[in-house]
Amino acid sequence: NDDEITSINNWLEKNSENNIPSSEYKFLAGLAKDKNVIAIQFESLENILINQSYYNQEITPNINSILKSSIYFNNIYDQVREGNSSDAEYMFNTSIYPISNGSTFLRFGNNKYNSLPFILNSYGFTSIAIHGDDKEFWNRDRVYPALGFNGYIHEDNFSYKKIDGMGIADESLFLQTYDELKKLRNPYYMFVITLTSHMPFNISDDFRYLELPNTDYSCNYLQSIHYTDKVLGDFFDKLDENGMLDNTIFIIYGDHEGVHKYYDTYLPDNNGRVPFIIYIPGIDGFVVDKIGGQIDMMPTLLYLLGIDENDYNKSLMGNNLFSSSPGSVLLPSGDIIGKTENEDHLNNANLISDLIIKGNYFSINK
Ligand code: GP9
To answer: Could you tell me if the CB of 41 is within 6 A of ligand 1?
Structure first.
C-alpha cells in the first residue's frame, strides 16, 4: 500500500546519503570501467584463513598471492539468514537484506530487483551464473532469470563431471567456467558458485594436499578450503596466461562461515567474518578494514565499475565501502557492529526489506 511504499522510499533515500565517496578513495571511482567481472562465491570461506598458515602450511596460497593486486576488505560480516548460501548470492546480486523468515529464493523466487545483472546488462554486459549442482537447488532455475542473468549453467550442462561431496567438484566447475568464458564477448559478468568445501568437509583422499595430523572437522575444513584455493588458483593462472585478466576484475568472497558455523573447532575465532577481495589488474594491493557486510558488496563494485549513481543509488540497502560514512553492519541477530550513528536507520532495515520482498516493490517501482 501507499504508506509502505513511502516508508521504503524514505528509507532508501536516507540510505543513499551514506554513499558519498571519501576523498581518500576518490581515485577508485570508475577505475574498473568497462572491465569484465568474474565473481567467485566461495563456499564456507572464513576470513581467518586468509594469509594464515596452520601446521606450517599456507591454507590459501593462491588467494594470498592474488591479494598482491587486490583490494582486500577484512572486516566484512556474514549476513545470511535461513537461505544460507542462496542468501549470500541474493545479497551480492541485489543489495537487499534477505527475508527474515524462510528463504527468499524459495519463497519469492520470481521477484524483480534493480539487480547487478540488470544494471550491468543495461551497460552492454552479458550476465551468466554457473554452479555444479542440481539446477533446481535453492530454486536457482527460477531465480537467476528473474534476477536478470542471461544464462544459468548447471550440472546437466557440464562437460566436466568429476563428483565430490555435494555435487560437481570445483576443479570441473572452473574448467567448465573457462570454456564458457571463451564463448562470451566483452564485457561479461560471470557469477561462479563453488561447492566442494561444503560441510561436513570430508573431501576424498585424492583432493587432500595438506599434511595434517588428523581428520577431525577442523583439519577436514582446512583440506577442503585448500583444495578449492588450488583449483581456483589454476583457473586464475590460466586466465592470466591467456591475457583474459588484463580487462577483468576478479572477485572472491565467502558465502558464510564454515567450520565455526557448524562445529566446535580449535581454530582461532573468526568473529563471523568472510573475506571480500577485488583483484584489479595493475594495482598495488591494499587492505580496507572498514566494517561492512555482504549487503555492501554490490554498491562497492558498482562504484569501481563507474556505473552512474543515478542507476542504483535509491534502490540498494547496502553502502559503498569506499564512502566516508562510518562503517557498521546489521547482523541477522539484530545486533549492530561498528559506529552507531546509523542505529535507528539500521534497526528498521529488516522491516523495510520484508516490505520490499513481500510487495515485490521493484516490479512496480522501476
Ligand atoms: C547448494 C549449495 C550449498 O547448491 O550452494 O548451499 P548451502 O547448503 O551452503 O546453503
So the answer is: no
For residue 80, the ligand 1 atom closest to its alpha carbon is 10
Q: How far is Cα of residue 297 from the mean position of the Cα atoms in its chain?
A: 7
List the residue whose alpha carbon is closest to atom 3 of ligand 1: 85
3-state DSSP assignment of residue 239: helix
Cβ of 84 closer than 6 Å to ligand 1, yes or no, is yes
Instruction: Give the ipTM.
Output: 0.97
SS3 347: helix
Show Cβ contacts of residue 184 under 8 Å, excluding neighbours closer than 6 positions.
126, 128, 190
43 is in an annotated binding site: yes
The 10s digit of each residue's pLDDT in 193-222 is 999 999 999 999 999 999 999 999 999 999
Spatial contact of 113 and 96, defined as CB atoms under 8 Å apart:
yes
Angle at CA 348, nearest 5°, toward 13 and 7?
A: 45
Of the candidates 209, 192, 199, the one whose C-alpha atom is nearest the C-alpha of residue 152 is: 192
Residue 96 contacts residue 297 (beta carbons within 8 Å):
no
CA 89 → CA 115, 139, 254, distances in Å?
A: 11, 12, 10
**Is residue 85 lining ligand 1, measured as CB closer than 6 Å?**
yes
Q: Is the pTM of this model over 0.95?
A: yes
Residue whose C-alpha cell is 533515500: 13
Q: Which atom of ligand 1 is nearest to the CA of 193?
A: 5
CA dist., res. 326 & res. 43, Å (int): 29
Could you tell me which residue, 241 or 366, shows the higher pLDDT? 241
Type of residue numbered 33 = K
Q: What share of the chain is helix, strand, coil (3-state, %, to 5)?
A: 40, 20, 40
